[in-house]
């Protein structure tokens, strides 16, 4: 018997018991759509994190005291503003070296207030990070040099304190000290769990006075290109170690951050896929079960087919094709359902979900494989039936 | 020219039950069915006539002795080759018709041709021709449940003959039919026997049916007691 005939025979058989075929496919359908949806969510999370890390700016080198590792307590910083000048000499361009000191403070304007991150920064921040303003201007060199009490508000901070009004020129207080608003950032969203719209930027000199400290928390250095970033990191660390022999420093690139986060999210995606895979397996067992029932029910048919010349292989192929057809039709329907669900998730929820074509292809391949694996036992049983016994069955 | 369609030589068939006990169903049977023969096998139930028919049809193998179908020794054939031999040499007609229920008359008739590798359009053409021959040209696309018992049996006869076999084996072909339909089916078998030279072997317990055959073989207790090979 040709394979094309086997497909036709199998289709006829599935059509003959529509409800049962549909229910059997349903198990596979759920499994495949679960794979597509869960992998899409995992991949979406990964892509989102990558976009956030890359959205900080390109070719960044983040330099902080202590070791960078998850779960490590932050090390008390001994870095000072004078280190900025030293690093600027190493890098060769003062505009590429950004420094920060951060504290969470209460910010008030009129009757409203918000508790938010206040960052002391240099005027070169927009040249290092990707930040654009919707109103006013950023800090200037002279603001930093003179420690002027001016502030640039994150979009959310501006909305909370001033609503839709333009805050540029208005007075606010940060920890009770008066500042003048000179600019508002365009909305940016989250980055690595930090809402970057809930920030207030002030000159680093003003921040140190406000927080009563000489320290700075760390640097962000923009390398001229990706090639020299590791080399630059080493030179920066060498300079810092020379200046602060008793402190350890770390320099991490975005690639390294992405590597760590990517690994974690990759494992997450894998776990989600495995959970979905289990439901696919259960669907496969269902297919096997139904095929065994089907072989029993159609014993007479098998006997007749053998009597008129079907070889054992013809019978095996017929039932195997039937099982594969069940799972692949279920698989295609599951893919459609999964893709639809992912689309709904993207439209209706804030979850980032991304279709990865490997997961769709894999789910389809696995569902076909499930049909073969779980179809073999029933097909063999059918092929081995003794025609004399089969014909006599009522 | 080979005039012997089926040859059985001193064949036995035992069924093994549990505990090493075996029951003999056939004890040394010899029988030759030549091309164009019209043979009836009769005998009480348990006499071994069904077992003999299964052997003649290549559905079963003898425990000992020689069984030749279309001149080929069954003992030398594997399951797949035996299936091909059945397809080429034998046509079956059963008491309970054994039509596929969800399948039209023409597709039921064409079924054996699928396993012969005949293309779809040729299959249909030959099946339709066969249905016309058995008087069912107006029932081609009917399903079995839309046909009378006599019509269903004629579909089964068409299915048995569509491969142009050497032997048509009919197991109680009139057993589920009223006398009018049964007579019509027998008349059809006899016509086909005369017209095409296909050997017809009818297994029956009905003396009247058996009496119409050219040769009667009477079985009892697993042996041929009358009408066997000279």
Automatic annotation (TrEMBL), chain A:
Residues 21-236 form the MacB-like periplasmic core domain. It comes from the Bacteria. InterPro entries: ABC3_permease_C, MacB_PCD, Macrolide_Exporter_MacB. Keywords: Cell membrane, Membrane, Transmembrane, Transmembrane helix. It holds the Pfam family MacB_PCD. Residues 274-387 form the ABC3 transporter permease C-terminal domain. It is found in: Cell membrane. The chain crosses the membrane at residues 21-42, 264-295, 316-349, 355-377. This is ABC transporter permease. It is a multi-pass membrane protein. Belongs to the ABC-4 integral membrane protein family.
UniProtKB/TrEMBL annotation, chain B:
SUPFAM superfamilies: P-loop containing nucleoside triphosphate hydrolases. GO terms for molecular function: ATP binding. Coiled coil: none annotated. InterPro entries: AAA+_ATPase, ABC_transporter-like_ATP-bd, ABC_transporter-like_CS, ABC_transpr_LolD-like, MacB-like_ATP-bd, P-loop_NTPase. Residues 6-230 form the ABC transporter domain. Keywords: ATP-binding, Nucleotide-binding, Transport. Pfam families: ABC_tran. PANTHER family: ABC TRANSPORTER ABCH.1 (PTHR24220:SF86), IMPORT ATP-BINDING PROTEIN (PTHR24220). This is ABC transporter ATP-binding protein.
């Amino acid at each position: 018997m040709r394979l094309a005939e086997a497909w036709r025979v199998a289709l006829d058989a599935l059509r003959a018991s529509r409800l049962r075929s549909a229910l059997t496919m349903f198990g596979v359908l759920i499994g495949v759509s679960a794979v597509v949806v869960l992998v899409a969510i995992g991949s979406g999370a990964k892509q989102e994190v990558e976009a956030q890390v890359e959205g900080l700016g390109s070719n960044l080198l983040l330099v902080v005291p202590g070791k960078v590792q998850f779960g490590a307590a932050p090390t008390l910083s001994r870095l000072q503003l004078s280190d900025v000048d030293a690093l600027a000499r190493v890098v060769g361009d003062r505009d590429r070296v950004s420094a920060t000191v951060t504290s969470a403070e209460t910010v008030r304007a009129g009757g409203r207030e918000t508790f938010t991150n206040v960052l002391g920064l240099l005027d070169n921040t927009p040249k290092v990070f990707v930040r654009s303003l919707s109103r006013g201007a950023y800090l200037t060199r002279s603001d930093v040099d003179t420690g002027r009490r001016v502030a640039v508000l994150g979009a959310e901070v501006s909305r909370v304190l001033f609503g839709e009004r333009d805050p540029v020129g208005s007075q606010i207080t940060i920890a009770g000290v008066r500042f003048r608003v000179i600019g508002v950032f365009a909305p940016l969203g989250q980055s690595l769990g930090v809402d970057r719209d809930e920030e207030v930027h002030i000159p680093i000199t003003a921040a140190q006075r406000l927080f009563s400290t000489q320290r700075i928390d760390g640097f962000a250095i923009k390398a001229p290109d990706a090639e020299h970033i590791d080399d630059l990191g080493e030179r920066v660390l060498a300079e810092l170690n020379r200046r602060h022999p008793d402190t350890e420093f770390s320099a991490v690139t975005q690639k390294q951050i992405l590597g760590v986060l990517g690994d974690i999210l990759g494992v997450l995606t894998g776990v989600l896929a495995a959970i979905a895979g289990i439901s696919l397996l259960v669907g496969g067992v269902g297919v096997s079960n139904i095929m065994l029932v089907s072989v029993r029910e159609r014993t007479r048919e098998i006997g007749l087919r053998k009597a008129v010349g079907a070889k054992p292989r013809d019978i095996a192929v017929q039932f195997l094709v039937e099982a594969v057809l069940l799972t692949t039709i279920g698989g295609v329907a599951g893919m459609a359902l999964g893709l639809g669900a992912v689309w709904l998730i993207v439209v209706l929820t804030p979850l980032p979900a991304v279709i990865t074509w490997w997961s769709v292809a894999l789910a389809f391949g696995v569902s076909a494989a499930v049909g073969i694996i779980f179809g073999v036992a029933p097909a063999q049983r059918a092929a081995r039936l003794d025609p004399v016994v089969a014909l006599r069955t009522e | 020219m080979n005039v012997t369609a089926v040859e059985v030589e001193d064949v036995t068939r035992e069924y093994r039950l549990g505990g090493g006990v075996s029951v003999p169903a056939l004890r040394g049977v010899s029988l030759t069915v030549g091309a164009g023969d019209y043979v009836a096998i009769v005998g009480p139930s348990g006499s071994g006539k069904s077992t003999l028919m299964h052997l003649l049809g290549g559905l079963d193998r003898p425990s000992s002795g020689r069984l030749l179908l279309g001149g080929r020794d069954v003992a030398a054939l594997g399951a797949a080759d035996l299936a091909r031999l059945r397809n080429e040499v034998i046509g079956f007609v059963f008491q309970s018709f054994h039509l596929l229920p969800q399948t039209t008359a023409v597709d039921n008739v064409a079924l054996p041709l699928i396993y012969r590798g005949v293309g779809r359009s040729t299959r249909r053409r030959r099946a339709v021709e066969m249905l016309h021959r058995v008087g069912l040209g107006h029932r081609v696309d009917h399903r079995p449940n839309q046909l009378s018992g006599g019509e269903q049996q004629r579909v089964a006869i068409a299915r048995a003959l569509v491969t142009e076999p050497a032997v048509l084996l009919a197991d109680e072909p009139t057993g589920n039919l009223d006398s009018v339909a049964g007579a019509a089916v027998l008349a059809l078998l006899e016509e086909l026997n005369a017209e095409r030279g296909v050997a017809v072997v009818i297994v029956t317990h009905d003396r009247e049916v058996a009496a119409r055959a050219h040769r009667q073989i009477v079985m009892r207790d697993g042996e041929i007691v009358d009408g066997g090979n000279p």
